[in-house]
Amino acid sequence: MRGWQLHELGQPQDVLRFEEQPDPRPAAGQVLVRVLASPVNFPDVLLCRGEYQLKPSLPFTPGVELCGEVVEVGDEVTGLTPGDRVVGGADLPAGGFAEFALMEAKRTFPAPRALSDAEAGSLFIGYQTGWFGLHRRAGIQPGETLLVHAAAGGVGSAAIQLGKAAGATVIGVVGGAGKAAVARELGADVVVDRHEEDFVDVVKSHTGGRGADVVYDPVGGDTYTRSTKCIAFEGRILIIGFAGGTIPTPGLNHALIKNYSIVGLHWGLYNDRDPQAVRRAHDDLSRLADEGAIRPLVSERVSLEGLADGVQRVGDGETVGRVVYAAE
Predict the structure, then answer these.
(1) In 100-130, which positions are buried (b, 16+ CB within 10 angstroms) versus exposed (e)?
(2) d(CA 203, CA 149)
(3) Where's the Enoyl reductase (ER) domain (predicted)?
């Protein structure tokens, strides 16, 4: 089969190699799928750089989530048969940036019929992260105000849609007029171009000085620090990631004085610690997709051969929504 592999670590454009590889074979508990679509996630960028918490042995094929058609099932796999259209996480080192990939059966779910291959392939990580962050960790309630950073990106766009589906007022923060238009299209009630406005002032203005009840922060650094200036009494700041490159060191005295919570989310842990909750979240997300309440924003479809450039551009922060390899 054809696919991308890493033989060394570095910037995606420098280290990804497109080459012929042996077809993978499923072991016990795995399924082999023909890749129908695989989106670029920021963890794919970190995997290339060697900066992700998961560090597969070289060489390996990135592509951490996908939509695929089951080709073969390994021993001990039940409930999945060849021909099934599925979504979920790839089982590295045989990731989704190739013609075929491996998936753990326990992390493989039916693809929602309402979504295209490219949309379905983008449902697992970003929307599961948003669902667990907003509902399980932050306990968002109808009528609350949700502040979403990097609102035009992969996880941010999911958070906007899930926040609206939960009945929240959503304020999205983006960088640039083009991304602002995307955030509005996604349903954000208020959009802040951080190049033109101070989101702290905007949040205070639109909440009568009360602040945001929930902050969804995949950026970190100064974005986190500034968010503490506009968090509401008993608000919750969700720590999703550090795409900005700097891990903040919060002043816990400030959290004490203002009565807000700093809430971490490592969504991947739920796959092992509470897999039934992951399955329930998938069922709820599928329902929302069928109802038209959520739809992954696929801004760009690329060929398999064009994936490396897409990975680099995601790493450089030049994209909106999802960049997806789609087989057709």
Answers:
(1) bbbbbbbbbbbbbebbbbbbbbbbbbbbbbb
(2) 12
(3) 10-325
* Each residue's pLDDT expressed in tens, for the chain with a length of 328 residues: 999 999 999 999 999 999 999 999 999 999 999 999 999 998 999 999 999 888 999 999 999 999 999 999 999 999 999 999 999 999 999 999 999 999 999 999 999 999 999 999 999 999 999 999 999 999 999 999 999 999 998 899 999 999 999 999 999 999 999 999 999 999 999 999 999 999 999 999 999 999 999 999 999 999 999 999 999 999 999 999 887 778 888 888 899 889 999 999 999 899 999 999 999 999 999 999 999 999 999 989 999 999 999 999 999 888 888 999 999 7
Amino acid (one-letter) located at 75: D
Rounded to two decimals, the pTM is: 0.91
Q: Rounded to whole angstroms, how far apart are CA atoms 59 and 95? A: 11
CA angle (63, 158, 91) in 5-degree steps? 25
CB-count exposure of residue 259 (10 Å: 0-12, 13-18, 19+): exposed
How far out from the chain centre does Cα 188 lie? 18
At residue 126, the 3 state secondary structure works out as helix
Q: Give the Å distances, CA to CA, from 174 to 67, 164, 219, 276.
A: 28, 17, 11, 34
One-letter amino acid at 7 equals H
**Domains of the chain, first to last:** 2-123+296-326 (3.90.180.10), 126-268 (3.40.50.720)
